[in-house]
Hints:
- The protein is α/β, with parallel strands linked by helices.
- It has one domain: Alpha/Beta hydrolase fold, catalytic domain (Rossmann fold).
- It contains 12 helices and 10 strands.
- Helix 10 links the parallel strand 9 and strand 10.
Amino acid sequence: xxxxxxxxxxxxxxxxxxxxxxxxxxxxxxxxxxxxxxxxxxxxxxxxxxxxxxxxxxxxxxxxxxxxxxxxxxxxxxxxxxxxxxxxxxxxxxxxxxxxxxxxxxxxxxxxxxxxxxxxxxxxxxxxxxxxxxxxxxxxxxxxxxxxxxxxxxxxxxxxxxxxxxxxxxxxxxxxxxxxxxxxxxxxxxxxxxxxxxxxxxxxxxxxxxxxxxxxxxxxxxxxxxxxxxxxxxxxxxxxxxxxxxxxxxxxxxxxxxxxxxxxxxxxxxxxxxxxxxxxxxxxx
Length: 285
């Protein structure tokens, strides 16, 4: 497993941490999900880096990026992405987002079409009904429950995650991700992510109607969809009807279902079909 180069760059009035793999090919800017960080991309980055330059950011409030007291919404993140692109000299990168990151990629591509080569939406970006959204938030509840809690050691912190059904089988990519996530505090360790920031983010995300952006996206779009739920079979982030609407209304969209993956394993686990689909998509046009 190759390790990324870690550097600081500028967001919109704050510092953003990024991880960089590879030096050649297309520049791919990766944007993680709600409570995640840049190391969520390690597995896929290792598959792509021999051919492309992969740049994964810690969103504001996550990882080693700055954590302002307020300012957690799609628009805040889009401004950070634009500033980061300017600071790193990225003229027209590929945007690849997972979960919340897929929404950010979708909105950014709609608002700044000339700044994006193409987008890859990994299990996210679709408009859910209130009922579907409630099921998804129930599915990610284990990820939210750890926020703010102090655990006596990293081993205790990660022991709950090692038992989670949606993280099986456990691997070194997950170990790296969770080690990067924690900070030492009095009494042990805790996640670097603050619950109040995620609550603001979730509230703003629930207000977003992503369908209003579909017709405004003119770049080639690849939708990677997990077919298994997290804690139940019906807590899919991209249910069939939602994914179909995206393919229908985003002009240049194509969809690849990754059978047997869930919202987490779609990136955490090695997957040849995923890697082949992404590499093929990047080579087109």
